[in-house]
Write a structure and sequence with these properties.
It is built from 18 helices and 6 strands. It is mainly alpha-helical. The protein folds into 2 domains: about 50 residues, Single Sheet (Rubrerythrin, domain 2), CATH 2.20.28; about 325 residues, Orthogonal Bundle (Citrate Synthase, domain 1). The strands form 2 sheets. The chain has a 3-stranded antiparallel sheet with strand order 1-2-3. Strands 4-5-6 form a 3-stranded antiparallel sheet. β1 and β2 form a beta hairpin. The protein is globular, with a radius of gyration of 23 Å. About 40% of the residues are buried. Carboxymethyl coenzyme *A binds next to loops. One of its GO terms (cellular component) is cytoplasm.
Length: about 425
């Protein structure tokens, strides 16, 4: 892979480093021997110029607004595929045949139930706990219930753990919701699709026969596809870093969920809808645009901007179209959708947003759809975590299978005191 050499002159040392080429995308300078040859580290907080791993799963061209999973464009997958198929693709590298898809679907379906004792575990949480807090705890606890799939050196156990995580996430998410509204938990119904089953466990009640609305099922499935994976983002890197120490997969995914919760990452969908509701009416938009541009105001336009996309996030395009369809088909009129559309139009013409290449991201319209379906804002990030679990387990498997895999151990630029002697407390 290394065809060229990058040259670095550091004092009197001249170092040559291999330049690696991926299938597509920027060249990567291999600096692994730099410290040994020069005694110097590189400095890149926030990883703005650093490739942390080699991966064959997901490719993003942020300037062109392209997102590919195993080579397939996200809009094609969202329009033509299903979440189960995309999960198979991410895990196995190729689209499944009909028979492979049926087998995968049936395997996932058979793992949807949770250990009965986990229901007791839920009852330890406060009723008003944020469902993400519940999800972090419950997923972390899974290793206590499924320790027969925690040997990461066994590929079969790794695959069972991956299937379990993908399958149980909807049940865990639905139970977190049910607990917060004081309704009884519903067991999975394996005659339904992955997404239909999740909707029933969330919105169904034992007293009534819940009928899955195909419009909602289709929109929800699309939302899951759009969130399935996204290269080496903060939560995925967290999963990889946790996994690099040999931690079990359930613990690693719990770490990913904790990272995803932040408002700069997965928590942005909740923050974006709260912001749209706070704006409330189109006439108040200029006030918020001015706040977003004011350096002395910490306010940011939530659902806008992205570390990698310096163009329209391709997921946001599908999301906007889906929002139109869902609101239309469900006959929902929500003024926040008008606020969102108008805000987008104003921001896209504003010099500040244009010059900084800030475009709507996946979270800008997802909240509008989820709210129309009936989810409270606190559930938004939970749904993101549910879908992203497929990407996390696929990335984790890829890392563990890599023979060059080492524990992740970044270094630092130390700026604290140099060595000094201890002074007894009465002499300080
Ligand atoms: N509103 C106003 N200004 C912004 C925004 C925004 N949403 N996003 C970035 N900027 C400005 C920022 O102030 C900075 O200005 P300056 O160069 O004058 O200091 C410039 O644009 C670059 O921003 P940055 O914070 O250095 O860029 P980053 O790559 O570190 O941050 C981001 C990316 C997504 C954290 C940021 O754009 C943001 O906070 N957006 C709002 C939160 C959000 O929607 N997050 C969801 C991301 S998509 C889902 C996911 O992958 O998790």
């Amino acid at each position: 892979m290394a065809e060229a050499q990058a040259k670095l002159a550091l004092g009197d040392k001249n170092v040559e480093m291999p330049v690696l080429k991926g299938t597509v995308g920027p060249d990567v300078i291999d600096i692994r021997k730099l410290y040994g040859q020069t005694g110097a580290f590189t400095y890149d907080p926030g990883f703005t110029s650093t490739a942390s791993c080699e991966s064959g799963l997901t490719y993003i061209d942020g300037d062109q607004g392209v997102l590919l999973h195993r080579g397939y464009p996200i809009d094609q997958l969202a329009e033509q595929s299903s979440f189960m198929e995309v999960a198979y693709l991410l895990l196995n590298g190729e689209l499944p045949t009909k028979a492979e898809l049926e087998k995968f679907d049936s395997t996932i379906t058979r793992h949807t139930m949770l250990h009965e004792q986990l229901a007791t575990f839920y009852r330890g949480f406060r009723r008003d706990a944020h469902p993400m807090a519940i999800m972090c705890g419950v997923v972390g606890a899974l290793s206590a219930f499924y320790h027969d799939s925690t040997d990461i050196t066994d590929p079969r156990q790794r695959m069972i753990a991956s299937h379990r995580l993908i399958a149980k996430m909807p049940t865990i998410a639905a139970m977190a919701y049910k607990y917060s509204v004081g309704q009884p938990f519903l067991y999975p119904d394996n005659s339904l699709s992955y997404t239909g089953n999740f909707l029933r466990m969330t919105f169904g009640v034992p007293a009534e026969n819940y009928v899955v609305d195909p419009v909602v099922e289709d929109a929800m499935d699309k939302i899951f596809i759009l969130h399935a994976d996204h290269e080496q983002n903060a939560s995925t890197s967290t999963v990889r870093l946790a996994g690099s120490s040999g931690a079990n997969p359930f613990a690693c995914i719990a770490a990913g969920i904790a990272c995803l919760w932040g408002p700069a990452h997965g928590g942005a969908n909740e923050a974006a809808l709260n912001m749209l509701r706070e704006i409330g009416t189109v006439d108040r938009i200029p006030e918020y645009i001015a706040r977003a541009k004011n350096k002395d105001d910490p306010f940011r336009l939530m659902g806008f901007g992205h570390r990698v996309y310096k163009n329209y996030d391709p997921r946001a395009k599908v999301m906007q179209k889906t929002a139109n369809e869902v609101l239309d088909k469900l006959g929902v009129t929500d003024p926040i959708f008008d606020v969102a559309r108008e805000l987008e139009q104003i921001a896209l013409k504003d010099d500040y947003f244009v010059s900084k290449k800030l475009y709507p991201n996946v979270d800008f319209y997802s909240g509008v759809i989820l709210s129309a379906i009936g989810f409270p804002t606190t559930m938004f990030t939970v749904l993101f975590a549910l879908a992203r679990t497929t990407g996390w387990v696929a990335q984790w498997n890829e890392m563990i299978s890599d023979p060059e895999q080492k524990i992740g151990r970044p270094r630092q630029l130390y700026t604290g005191p140099a060595q000094r002697d201890y002074v007894a407390v009465d002499r300080r």
